[in-house]
Fold these 4 entries.
Entry 1:
Amino acid sequence: MKKLRALDITLVGMFVALTAIGANITSIAPFLHVGGVPITLQTFFAVLAGLILGSRIGAIAMIVYMLVGLVGVPVFAGFSGGLRIIFSPTFGFIVSFIFVAFIIGKIIERKTSLSAYITAALIGMAVNYLFGTNWMYFTFKLWAAAPAGFTYKMAWLWMIPPLPKDIILSILAGVLAHRLEKTVLSKGQFKNVKRAS
């Protein structure tokens, strides 16, 4: 297990903070609703963590984000936190951020073209939806109070409204991260951040 450098720790802390802000962006800027759907940025920053930090550091950043919230710091949506979140139907989306960052990081550590960045971002978003939606379904079926007539199909229908937003933000994350890789991240102390993962 490689030691974390001071830069790595700083970047982990930055992405924990950004993901917390992304979870509550509509509380800070209530106008960020499109057709009644809140534009949250948690998935966006989880995707960016994998794209910018790579598989190891990106996953660590998302693990730290989850643990910070579980110990009670209000970093989750609605400025919530604490162990009770584990039993929430949406906790699977938080867990998925770890896999999102890791898988995306692995993809772009092998190929660094713009198309690879965008593809990796979209794959990460798909992982978020697959893991989170299935967690939500089984949570409702096993212990949470499910709505009347709740089905697996209904769980996926709930995911349709935020889907266009997440596709657009994932593509944007891929373009932004690729641009940063070719400019800021390829110079100075940032050079080979992902390779150090």
Entry 2:
Amino acid sequence: MMQDAEKNAPPRRSDHTRAAILNAARHRFATQGFERTTIRAVAADAEIDPSMVMRYYGSKAQLFDAALAIDLRLPDLTAVPADDLARTLVRHFLHRWEDDPTGDALLLLLRSAVTNDQAATRMHEIFAAQISPALTAALGPERTAARAGLISAQLLGLGLTRYLLRLPAVTVLTAEQIIDTLAPAIQATLEQR
């Protein structure tokens, strides 16, 4: 009986406060970087006292670490035909980045990984823990080991050039043009023997 009441209970105020802090932190870290982001600025954006940020996250480094917690939300690749796997991956990442590019923790991580060792380590961990197992499930272990890193490089290169560097030759392309152009390169990587 008690468990049902807990499931149907409205979200606690602390959950809302944590989410507000995390959203504000992701925005600040994405736009200003780790060094220029302050606890006071994050608190002001979240409309709370700076002591609340410290209460929930302990330090700026711990807040940054929480902001970098990322689920790539990969689809079940085992259900995708092998010849459509690359198109599915490119479409997924484009959709993911274009839904909310300023609030996307993956873009925050990509921007930060270039200059921050903690972010670079997190990038390695996320892609190793999520891309590689998803590809292994779809392709088998013998075809995945060397390919996961190269596919990650291609997808992260797309994110870097389209959303962070905003190279005109890449930003003018529609999502379908990118899928049609990039997917064959990723497919070739997937099929390499």
Entry 3:
Amino acid sequence: MKDKLVLIGAGGYCRGVLDSLLLLDSYEIVGITDPATPIGTDVYGISVLGTDDILPKLFESGVKKAHITVGSVGNCSLRKKLVEMAENIGFELVTIIDPNAVLAKDVRLGKMAYIGKSATINSDVEIGNYCIINTGSIIEHGCRIGNFVHVAPGSVLVGDIHVGNESHFGLNCSVLQGLTIGNRVIVGAGSTVLRNVNDGETVVGIVK
């Protein structure tokens, strides 16, 4: 018997995660909660059940696993709030790895990671809690990634990079090997980072 799973959030990010889940076929997906989406809305055959207010009743009914399907682009506050809410209810927040992702055998993943289609994570990489490693991104050997980090589609983090918490790497950006990227950093789409980046910085273009 498959474990029952609820998804929290019905936006665009939910569709990508849900497609991965349907390919994996590892859980019984009971539905989705979202405060802004009408009850009964169909997302790839899975229904929106109501707002997040119904989550305690779902947990009491036997749904013990959840995944937060609200993403983040430079601001993790809502995602963090939903994680706290779900964990306080008692849900186990599960990691989801798309079957087309490639992970080295010694990759270490924290709680509730999402690893998207064709993402590649190489040897001796550590990913923190609640991270999104999105479609086609590459994280090379020896990288250390903090909590609530979002690596957007097509981004490349070359080897031995250290990344703090709540940082965002925009679409198709690249980060040179051996650098340190601080907490709450935003790297703009298409940027190339050639130097260390301090906490709270937003960097775009060729960063040197």
Entry 4:
Amino acid sequence: SFNSDFSNSSLIVAFEDLIDGDFDYNDLIVGISDVQAVPEPGTLALFGLGLVGLGMTRRRKSA
């Protein structure tokens, strides 16, 4: 049954396979567990490092 299969899931995502389908949303169901928050400063630091790296490679190619 649906409830016993996804009882330990933190997030349940379900999809309908047809645009004008029957809207039962049981064509593809994914249960995601052990969801952990990503600390925002770490995310911004990684994004910044990526931008710096892209800038450095662009600078090397244009010089």
